[in-house]
Amino acid sequence: MENFLNYIKQHDLDINDETLAEKLDALDDLSHMRKEFNFPQLGDIATEINDENRDKVDQEVIYLTGNSLGLQGKAVERELKVYLDDWKKYAVEGHMKGTHPFISIDEEIQSRLASIVGAKPSEVCSMNSLSVNLHILLSNFYKPTKDRYKIVIEYGAFPSDLYVTESQLRNHGFNPETDLIKIKPKENEYTLTTQEIIDTLKEHGDSIAVVLLSGVQYFTGQFFDIKTITKVGHECGAIVGWDLAHAAGNVQLQLHDWDVDFASWCSYKYLNSGPGCIAGVFVHSRITETFDLATDNRLMGWFGNKLSHRFHKEKPFVAETGALGFRCSNPSVADTTALRASLDIFEKAGGVSKLSAKSVILTGYLEYLLRNKLASTNIQMITPTDPSQRGAQISLLVREIKANEIKHKLLNSGVICDVREPDVIRVAPAPLYNSFTDCHRFIQLLNKAMM
Ligand SMILES: Cc1ncc(COP(=O)(O)O)c(C=O)c1O
C-alpha cells in the first residue's frame, strides 16, 4: 500500500477526492489495453436481475478473476479464425504452409514465452497441461535414492500438486505420509516466511530430492522468494522446481538468473489463453546443455527428437535443443495459436515489467480501499501487504457471512470474483484489463453485499 500512497503524493492527488479512481485511470498509460478484451455482460452471468439492474443487462461486468481464468483477448478470437482458415485451406500441407506453419507453431513463440518468465528462449516451450508437465518434469528430475528421496511442497498446495507429488513418491516405493514434507504456516497464520521455508529445507537437508513450491500461492496470493529458496534448496543438494500457475504473467520472474531447475505454468490465468490451454515449461540451460540421454533416461516422445531424426526410426533419438527436447507429442495448434495471440497482447502492453509496475499501484489501491472504505469488520486480508510478496491477487477471509453468499450477491450486481471454500474470496485486478474504477466500484458493491 506504501507504493500506492507514494504514487498519490508523487502525482499530487488527494486521497479523499471522490473522483480519485477516475483520476488514477486517466494517469494509467495502460488503460487502452482494456479494449483488447471481451468482457462478459451482466445479463449473461447474473442468476437473477433485480429492478435496480434491469436496464444494466448490457453492461460489462467488473471482472476480478484473472487469477482463475483470464478474459478472452480479441486477438485470440481473430487468430483462431486464421488458424481454422489455414487448416481448411491447406489441410496436412498446413504443417509447412500458411500464415503460421503447424510444424513450428510452438517454436515461433519461444522468445515471447521466455520474456514472461525471465528465461532464454531455448529454456522454455509450450506443451500439454500443467499437472501433466509436473509429472513429466518430476519423472525426469525426481531420481530418489535410499538416502535422498523426500519431496517438499507447501502445506495447502493446490490439490493437483499434492496428487502429483504423492503419486510420484508412491511410484518410487516411498510413503507420502512420511516422505512428503508440507511446510505449514504457524498457528493462526496463513502465509509462510522465507525463513520458515529455509528452516524446513535445512532440517530435512540431504534427505530432500526435490523441492516443488508455488511461485504465487493460489489460496493466499503469496509470492515466494524464488531466488533465495532455490539457492537454499541447491545448498541442500536438492532439485528445485516451481509451479508458476499464479505467477506467470502476474509477477516479474527471472527463472534463468535465479537458477531455477525446472518450472511449469498454465496459460489460462494471467496469460489469458483460454480454459485448459497449453502450458509452459522451463528447464534451465545448465541442465539441458549437459544432458546425456544414456545416463539421464529422459521420457521420450517423437516431438522431443530433432526434426531431422523425427521421422527416421533408424536414426537415434537426438533431443531437440533445450526445453523442446522434453516434448513428447506434437503441440495443439489451436492452443498454441491462442497462446501466441495472448503473448502478443503482453508485448503490445510493454511486457511484464510494465504491467507489474501498474499492478503494484492497482493492487495497492485495492488494499487501501479494503483497509479504509469497508464498512464491515468481518473481512480480513490474508495476502501479504508487501508488494514484493504478492502479485495482483488479494485473498479475503470472510467471517459471519458465507463467502459464497457474498460471491453470489456480487455476481448479481455485476462483479465476478471467486471463492475458495470455505471462507476465502479471491480478487485479482489484472493490470491488462482492470481499472482503478473497477476497484472503487467493487468496494462499493462489496459493502452492499455485506449488509
Ligand atoms: C497452482 C495450480 N497448480 C496446478 C493447477 C492445475 O492445472 P491443470 O489443470 O492445467 O493441470 C492449477 C489450476 O488452476 C493451479 O492453480
UniProtKB/TrEMBL annotation:
Gene3D superfamilies: Aspartate Aminotransferase, domain 1, Type I PLP-dependent aspartate aminotransferase-like (Major domain). Pathway: Amino-acid degradation; L-kynurenine degradation; L-alanine and anthranilate from L-kynurenine: step 1/1; Cofactor biosynthesis; NAD(+) biosynthesis; quinolinate from L-kynurenine: step 2/3. Pyridoxal 5'-phosphate binds at L130, S131, F158, P159, S160, D161, S214, D243, H246, Y268, W302, N330. GO terms for molecular function: kynureninase activity; pyridoxal phosphate binding. Its EC number is 3.7.1.3. GO terms for biological process: 'de novo' NAD+ biosynthetic process from L-tryptophan; anthranilate metabolic process; L-kynurenine catabolic process; L-tryptophan catabolic process to kynurenine; quinolinate biosynthetic process. Belongs to the kynureninase family. This is Kynureninase. It comes from Polysphondylium violaceum. The gene is KYNU.
